[in-house]
From TrEMBL:
It comes from Flagellimonas alvinocaridis. GO terms for molecular function: CoA-transferase activity. It holds the Pfam family CoA_trans. InterPro entries: 3-oxoacid_CoA-transf_A, CoA_trans_fam_I, CoA_transf_BS, NagB/RpiA_transferase-like. PANTHER family: ACETATE COA-TRANSFERASE SUBUNIT ALPHA, KETOACID-COENZYME A TRANSFERASE. Belongs to the 3-oxoacid CoA-transferase subunit A family. This is CoA transferase subunit A. It comes from the Bacteria. Keywords: Transferase.
Length: 233
């Protein structure tokens, strides 16, 4: 069986360069590839395009890349929790492409499946559809959306094995599965890395064929984006 394990995050990100397009899993701060993001910050690569549901918060997640002005363009569906993102977007420093959340997920899945494009009703008649082909099916209008093209996909999983098979936990599953195999190279960081064949095949969410590199992450913070608690009586 092929062993896709790399020893650390530095080896996992070998080949990243300025101007590349990256997919990054996660929803808010849930299930984000923390180690990969930290390494991108350390490497200082710039002019990158990031495809991610959102941009994290100011001092964590993709917000760390924004602080260093490493991101040239963000393709996201929700960006309301990051003040620096707002500042850069309004000042024209950051190019932003807002995409309906379901469309963003499907653009990832289409790339994963090898489909060049798909039709969706989401966004028809709005700015989202400007410059795009539209077509009517059964009396309803649809917009042609191209699949994403990315150089690297960075995902976070709960468990993985040396063959690249992955299991996600709870809501950390979010955008991570559909980004696996949707780029030229998929890098998975996992909380627990096991020998090949250790995972129950019936529990595997993503088979190893969609993953090129896997490593065991460390020092996961797993921050909570919005904490709400009851007041003491």
């Amino acid at each position: 069986m092929i062993n896709k394990t790399v020893s650390n995050v530095q080896e996992a990100l070998k080949g990243v360069a300025d101007g590349m397009t990256f997919m990054l899993g996660g929803f808010g701060l849930c299930g984000i590839p923390e180690n990969a993001i930290a390494e991108l910050v350390r490497l200082g690569i710039k002019d990158i395009t990031c495809i991610s549901n959102n941009a994290g918060v100011d001092d964590f997640g993709l917000g760390l890349l924004l602080q260093k002005h490493q991101i040239k363009k963000m393709i996201s569906s929700y960006v309301g929790e990051n003040d620096e993102f707002e500042r850069q977007m309004l000042s024209g420093e950051l190019e932003v492409e807002l995409t309906p959340q379901g469309t963003l997920a499907e653009k990832c899945r289409a790339a994963q499946a090898g489909f060049p494009a798909f039709y969706t009703p989401a966004g028809y008649g709005t700015e989202v559809a400007k410059g795009k082909e539209t077509r009517e099916f059964d009396g309803k209008m649809y917009v042609l959306e191209p699949a994403f093209k990315a150089d690297f996909s960075f995902v976070k999983a709960w468990k993985g094995d040396e063959a690249g098979n992955l299991i996600f936990k709870g809501t950390a599953r979010n955008f991570n599965p559909c980004m696996c195999g949707a780029a030229k190279i998929t890098v998975a960081e996992v909380e627990e890395l096991l020998p090949a064949g250790s995972l129950d095949p019936n529990q595997v969410h993503i088979p190893g064929i969609f993953v090129q590199r896997i490593f065991q992450g460390e020092k996961f913070e797993k921050r909570i984006e919005q904490r709400t608690v009851r007041t003491k009586k």
